[in-house]
Amino acid sequence: MILLISGSLRAGSVNGAVLGTAAGFSEARIYRGLADLPHFNPDDDRDPLPAEVAALRLLLGAAEAVLFCTPEYAGGLPGSFKNLLDWTIGGGELDGKPVAWINASSVAAPTGGADAHASLRKTLGYAGARIIDEACVRIPVSRAVVADGRVTDPDLGGRIAVVVRRLVEASR
Predict the structure, then answer these.
(1) What angle do CA 81, 49, 65 make, to 5 degrees?
(2) Dihedrals φ, ψ of 77, to 5°?
(3) What is the pLDDT along the chain (172 residues), one digit of tens a residue?
């Protein structure tokens, strides 16, 4: 099972639609608890963990691979998403686990999301994740091709399918 994690809390986000599309190409589960995670505090990173954190770590541990899709906000990762990543460090569930991301930033985005994804790479390195570079791609998606939580453009869908296939292959 691939765990799909969006860095966006926005209802109807492009990032969520990318992952909604990705879910159709493999056995996958979309993580929906981002907004429920408590603020990271190292003092709380011990048993018993907050229930939301324990659930996240259980999902991460059970996943064969993880695919992220996050926007860039103010030149970096959105705070709620960075909070999720902070909770992954102490548990070790990402250690050696294949991970990748799709950068769905539109062409109009000032940095194309590059700063957020550089930060994501750095943080995943601290978590010990195995980054599958051939599955880390930029697929610009406009809101015009998003409907019902999916990307409707067949070409973009095909490119998302390739990412999923590469990540699945790396997890074997």
Answers:
(1) 50
(2) -75, 145
(3) 999 999 999 999 999 999 999 999 999 999 999 999 999 999 999 999 999 999 999 999 999 999 999 998 888 899 999 999 999 999 999 999 999 999 998 766 667 778 888 999 999 999 999 999 999 999 999 999 999 999 999 999 999 999 999 999 999 8
Query: Quick one: which of 163, 142, 164 has its CA closest to 152?
Result: 142
What's the longest Cα–Cα distance across the chain?
A: 47
Parse the chain into domains and list their residue ranges. 2-35+49-153
* Domain boundaries 2-35+49-153, CATH class: alpha beta
Sign, CA dihedral 152-154-160-164, equals positive
CA distance 48 to 54: 8
- Both tokens assigned to 126: 């601290």
User: Which pTM was predicted?
Assistant: 0.95
Distance CA 149, CA 11 (A): 9
